[in-house]
Amino acid sequence: MTGLRGAGDPQLLIVEHVDVSIFSFIAVYGIMRGRWWAPWAIAVAGLATAVLVLSLGPLLNLDAASRSGLWSGAVFILVLAALGAWYVRRTLSS
């Protein structure tokens, strides 16, 4: 049970994971139901995930070598979210 509560993890990190999960579930629901706001939900979920990745460095007190890939990971997530939002928007329009 301690794994579910995030024993030893900073509280903000746990909150960020919950936020990303909620935003992602909302995006999936919007995609499944074909809602007009689904692309926006994908964008918000992608942005929240990128912020989570960037916050890992300061929250976990990572050294410079460990933080080196966080920016590229966040950018990659944003690009994938943008592509996903574009694809869903295009699919819903047709």
Q: Key features?
A:
0% strand, mainly alpha
- Domain count: the total is 1
Q: Profile the largest sheet.
A: none
The 3D shape can be described as: elongated
Q: Give helix % range.
A: over 70%
Cα distance, first to last residue? 46 Å
Q: How many helix segments?
A: 5
Unreliable stretches, pLDDT < 50, 5 or more residues?
none
Order of helices and strands: HHHHH
The radius of gyration is 15 Å
> Tally of extended strands?
0
The SS-based structural class is mainly alpha
Fold and architecture overview:
This protein is mainly α and 94 residues long. It has one domain (11-93). The protein is 82% helix and 0% strand. It contains five helices and no strands. The protein has helices at residues 2-5, 11-33, 38-59, 64-67, 70-93. Helix 2 packs antiparallel against helix 3 and helix 3 packs antiparallel against helix 5 (70-93). It is elongated and about 50 Å long. The chain starts with a helix and ends with a helix. The model has no long low-confidence stretch (mean pLDDT 92).
Task: Give the SSE layout.
Blueprint: H1 2-5, H2 11-33, H3 38-59, H4 64-67, H5 70-93
In short:
With 94 residues, the chain is mainly α. It has helices spanning 2-5, 11-33, 38-59, 64-67, 70-93. The longest helix has 24 residues, at 70-93.
